[in-house]
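check these tokens.
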Amino acid sequence: MEPKSTSQNDEAVVLKDVTKYFGSLAAVFNASFVIKNGRLHSVIGPNGAGKTTLFNLICGNLACTSGQILFFGQDITHTPSYRRSRIGLGRTFQITNLFQELTLGENLMLAVGPKIFGLDHFRLAPMESSDALAILEEFGLADKWRTKIKNLSYGEQRQVEVVLGLALKSKVLFMDEPFAGLSPAEASQMIGIIGRIKGKVTVVLVEHDLDAVFELSDRIIVMHAGEILTEGTREEIRKDQRVQEVYLGGI
């Protein structure tokens, strides 16, 4: 099944029949869809639906068994994850993936250092980078530059991961359960952060917090048993009887 599309300039990520087998188990089977540039898409579905495996395939952490992945028209199906990151495909993880014993500033400069100084002459900036500080200022974290990651709250650490994605100038930012483990107040802050970056960068969420999904998403992709069940706008997904039966319940 070929994904529907408009113009190639509007297509940030395109999946064509992407499949991943683990032995005889198809964790993802014939996934085809288009992530439109500048939009916020969410991928939802019950546990075991294949959402994180799908993210790992797109971001290069797993190899496809078959199918094709395009990134702004470039075939990245067999491109290593670090090269995908360099061309603008960013990601946050379910579990915070930061250097806990380093400061916020050091984590930030480790992320952007190769782009600023070059891979052959990489070093950490001894002082604050004005560009990096400007990003932190936007999210109220500039005063935490010299604070070790382990001394930040869990909600602040999740925010830092978003900041790292922006500092790397990601064109598309994949966020794996950004609301997991957050208090209601922290979740509200994260909604605000994602809302601010929406439109500046293409965002794709895997998330179980359906209130956040329906508040933020332009389009929603629903997975079930490794396959794409359906996709559509928020209202289309709310009204879809198949989605009601397998996932949403009374929402």
